[in-house]
Structures are given as C-alpha cells and as structure tokens.
Amino acid sequence: MKRSPRRKKQALLLPFILVTLIIIFAFGFLQSQIKITQDHATSNLQKNYDQFVNLLEIEKRRLTPLKLPILLYHYIEIVTNLRDTIRQSLNINPQIFESQINTLLTHGYQPIVMSDLIDYFDGKKALPSKPIIFTFDDGYRDFYTDVLPILKKYHIKVMLYVSTGLVDSTRNYLTQPQLKEVIASGLVEIGAHSVTHSNLRYLNLAVAKTEILESKQELEKLTGQKVKHFAFPYGDYSSDLILELGKAGFDTAVTVDPGTTQTYAERFSLKRIRPGRTTDTVLLKLIE
C-alpha cells in the first residue's frame, strides 16, 4: 500500500522538527549556562572587590595614628586611713570620678573597651568620633562597692585589669563572687594584670612568662570568657615581654607611658593618662 504524498511530507518534516527543537533547547540551555556563569563571575568579582576595599581600609586604620585617651585609675573611694599615703596618692573621691564622667560625656566622649579597639583595627566595626577608655588596675574591692554603681548609673563600659593572685586575698581586693557580679553587669571587660603584681621586667623571663600565662588561664577559668588584654604591673615592659604576650594570645597591653595617640604597631604598649582629681576644663585640656 503506497503512502499518500501528505504522509510522506510529514515523515520528512518530523526529523527536521526534532532537530530544530533540539537546537532551540540546546541554545536556551547554553544561554542559561552563560548567564549563570556570568552571574557567578560578577558575584565573585564583587566579592573580591569588596575584600580588596576592606583590606585597604584595614591597612589604613592600622597605619593611621588614632586619637584615643586611655584613662588610668586605681582606687575610687573615700580613704579613711590618713596614714596610708600610697592609697591616698592613687585615690580619687567617687564624687570627683562621677564629675569626670559627666564632663567627658557632656563633651561628646563615648567610652569603649579594648575589644572595640581591636575590632576597629581589624575592620570589623567603626569607632565613635570621640572614643575614650576607662581602665582600672589591680582589682580593688572598691571597684565593686564604689565604681560599679556609678557605671550602672551612666551605663558606660570600662576595662578592669585583675592580678589573679590578689583575688580573695585580703579585704582590700575583690572576691570571686564580686568579680563574677562585676562581669555579669555587662559593663566591664576583664584583662589580666599578672598573678602576683610583680614587676615582670625584673623577673627571669621564664618566671615572667608563667605570670602572664597563668593570669590569663586563671581569669578565663574564673570568668568563662576569653581574656585578650593585659596591663603591665607598674607599667614596666620590654620587647621580650611583648613577644610573650603575643605568644600567649593577648591582643593588647597598656602601660603608664603618657600620651593619647595610639597605633596598631604599638598595641602592646598603649599609652595612658592619669586624670588624677582634675575635672571640667582642666581634665579636657589634659586629654586633648
């Protein structure tokens, strides 16, 4: 039986139609793959560009000196023992301390802590236009009785550097429960200040290394937090001690060298200012 001309024509057209459909499909698939590749390449290019810009910003921050007053405090209390001349020389009346806070806040200063400074150097966050850091050395009990209520009143953050061997030692120093309550306030970042508060520069380096490591480990065990910042006892330091701090995992260290300009290169020898009993314009002139 012979096929009709129409069926012959249909039979000839069918392969052509199938090939055409395959070509159209393949072309569409190819276009979609090209678009996916282009989008992926564009995304990678944007990501690489953003990373490059971020690296440039980090480098700029690390190379540019930063105006950052870091204030140094010891005692904040009313000294009752007039024969304790050392305590009196290091002490500031709580009312004067509160007046200093008022002065600084009124003139636009915003307190930060050391982790904020490192985040700034690492390109993770910006700093306020007029940053300032309050630091307290040793871990005296008046930090709990006199300082903490003022911090809560103004809701400002500060650094507290603790010598671990002095905790619970006498009535002069913080107890473990007090220290934990201080941390629970969310207003205090804890730093290490050695174990025995010895001048590390005059110790054998191996002994100084133990003081550094054990103070960090004991505080981390006590607080349940990473301790990344250090204060040199008596502000005395050396290049060897700075090297040991880096090995131990610290990010910063403060000294008693005077000054208000900080740099990333000197993050292990940050300068501090003793505000003493100055207030108002005298205090502002001291830090500006």
Written description of the protein model:
- The protein has 288 residues and is an alpha/beta fold.
- It has 2 domains: 1-64; 67-287, Glycoside hydrolase/deacetylase (TIM Barrel), CATH 3.20.20.370.
- It is 50% helix and 13% strand.
- The chain has helices at residues 5-63, 85-90, 94-106, 114-121, 142-154, 176-184, 205-223, 239-248, 280-287; strands at residues 66-67, 70-73, 75-76, 91-92, 110-111, 131-138, 158-162, 188-192, 229-231, 252-254, 261-262.
- Strands 2, 5, 6, 7 and 8 form a 5-stranded parallel β-sheet that branches.
- α3 crosses α9 and α7 (205-223) packs parallel to α8.
- The longest helix has 59 residues, at 5-63.
- The mean pLDDT is 90.
- One of its GO terms (cellular component) is extracellular region.
- Residues 130-288 form the NodB homology domain.
- The chain crosses the membrane at residues 12-30.
